[in-house]
Design a protein that fits this description.
By secondary structure, this protein is an alpha+beta fold. The chain has helices at about 15-25, 45-60, 65, 95-105, 170-180, 205-235, 245-265, 270-285, 295, 305-335, 490-495; strands at about 35-40, 75-80, 110-120, 125-135, 160, 165, 190-195, 200, 300, 340-345, 350-360, 365-370, 385-390, 395-400, 400-405, 420-425, 430, 435-440, 445, 450-455, 460-470, 475-485.
């Protein structure tokens, strides 16, 4: 059906319309209920104006559910192109064209003209007229001619059937009458973007998450490695060992850091953040290496865990960390990315009960309720080394401003009674907003939701929405264009900084 455009979406960009022109020329598409073309018309002549008006009325008289199968309900008349050639057309002023066409079609149909510059067979540039007719809606009037021309009398109702526009038959008049009357019970609703665009991108991949886990595991193992080297050296020398000067320990640490760095080398920001975390663990472990500290903590006792047991704890911690990091990224981003805000409107004079809106966003996108909870990262095992006996001590301050009992990250602060959007992530994301009543002519902002867009991100995401309610028939649907910022995305270090 052609290349470069998607018939499930409105064809609007100049490049896509140009592609449609060449697709017609190459014979790769047929006329249909949504598409008509003419090789050429004299738009200053009544015959040319009649042909445009007939196409506009015919496409405006389509049934909504039938029209919606193509290009989101939009219809197109192209003048200046046919199979085999792009001949172009003499351009006329759009205001004049609108006045001439409305003399026949009236001001009921919603349509707009534009010219697209294309290349003809001899290489010259020509103009092709593109007339776009807006999607028909339930409750629309029956559009008819307002002025006689040739065989079309005043009051003639034209309809679009497959590849022709012709006067309506009785059954088609009946269908259009039902379309008009459906406004009494048919759902009409509007959804638009109220804020939060352009969306921000998140530049975090599996390699970044893997690097974070490797560095965290390396940091957790360092206190045990220090203790093992120290114990071996003391057994050999009988004296106090300065680990920073011990060549064997330095070689082992350099090897471990080198292995972690190989995994993390693609993300300098992650390496920097993990270096800070490593320094924090080093300061914790250093408490027990400072002269006089063990004497000050007279109530301490050796670590009851064996090296194998501590390594098992670290392994379990790293597995939990790997599982928790993706959710932590989503939640962390929700504190840094502006939430998407959608606005719901009821254009009718009737009360709508329990309106439910569902938003589908394709691509590498996940959604999360902003600030609904905090990152629930697992707590690493207590650093290997002496510990306090069960005594009357509370939280004992130690050098460097640290505390012996590290605080645990909160798993979440969301209220059990919280009734926010229902989110389904997985390759793309779907958000179902809580049902709400909507009074006549009321405008209501839906609950904000953060869209986490993973790099590399497109410039625009075409999200689809649909709405239903309990006291009106039908489903209303539409598309939202969500622009995405092309600035560098948030990295893992920024997201987990807090």
């Amino acid at each position: 059906m052609g290349t470069g455009f998607d018939l499930s979406r409105r064809i609007h960009r100049p490049a896509d319309l140009l592609d449609l022109i060449y697709t017609i020329r190459d014979g790769n598409i047929d006329e249909g209920i949504w598409l008509e073309w003419k090789s050429g018309l004299d738009l200053k002549a009544k015959a040319g104006q009649f042909h445009v008006a007939r196409a506009v009325v015919g496409m405006a008289n389509r049934m909504p559910e039938t029209a919606a199968r193509f290009c989101e309900g939009h219809g197109y008349l192209l003048v200046g192109v046919e199979r085999g050639q792009v001949g172009g057309i003499a351009e006329v002023d759009s205001i004049d064209l609108g006045r001439w066409v409305e003399a026949y079609a009236g001001d009921g149909p919603r349509w707009s003209p534009r010219y697209i510059r294309a290349e003809s067979a001899d290489g010259s540039s020509v103009d092709v007229l593109v007339v776009e007719v807006e999607p028909p809606r339930w409750g629309d009037p029956i559009h008819c001619f307002r002025k006689m021309y040739d065989y079309a009398a005043d009051g003639t109702v034209f309809v679009r059937r497959l590849s022709e526009t012709a006067p309506a038959k009785s059954r088609e008049i009946n269908a259009l009458s039902q379309r008009l009357l459906a406004s009494r019970n048919q759902l009409q609703i509007g959804v638009e973007v109220a804020g939060g665009v352009p969306l921000g991108a998140v530049d975090v991949g599996e390699r970044d998450l893997g690097a974070w886990v490797v560095r965290a595991a390396a940091d957790a193992l360092e206190p045990l490695e220090r203790a093992e080297v120290r114990e071996a050296a003391r057994a050999a020398s009988g004296g106090v060992v300065d680990l920073d000067a011990d060549p064997d320990f330095q070689v082992r640490r350099a090897s471990r850091v080198s292995r972690a760095r190989e995994v993390a080398e693609s993300s300098a920001a992650v390496s920097a953040a993990q270096a800070a975390a490593q320094e924090l663990e080093r300061r914790k472990a250093a408490v027990f290496e400072q002269p006089g500290v063990m004497g000050w903590l007279a109530g301490s006792e050796p670590d009851p865990r064996t090296g194998a047991q501590y390594r098992a704890e670290v392994a379990a911690y790293t597995r939990e960390l790997a599982e928790a990091l993706p959710e932590a990224v989503r939640v962390g981003a929700s504190w840094l990315v502006a939430p998407l805000e959608l606005r719901l409107s009821n254009p009718t004079d009737g009360h709508l009960k329990l309106v439910e809106v569902e938003l589908y966003v394709p691509g590498e996108v996940e959604s999360v309720v902003p600030e609904a909870n905090e990152a629930a990262l697992p707590e690493p095992p207590r650093p290997y080394g002496p510990r306090l006996r069960a005594a009357t001590f509370g939280s004992i301050p130690v050098p460097g401003g640290l505390y012996m009992n590290a605080s645990v990250l909160a798993a979440g602060n969301a209220s059990p009674s919280y009734r926010g959007p229902v989110i389904r992530n997985g390759g793309s994301t779907t958000v179902v907003f809580p049902a709400t009543d909507l009074r006549a002519r009321e405008i209501l902002d839906l609950d904000p939701v953060v869209l986490v867009v993973y790099a590399p991100a497109p410039r625009v995401i075409h999200a689809q929405w649909k709405a239903t309610c309990t006291n009106r028939d039908g489903v209303v649907s539409g598309t939202l264009e969500l622009p995405v910022s092309q600035a560098p995305g948030l990295d893992l270090a920024a997201i987990l900084a807090d």
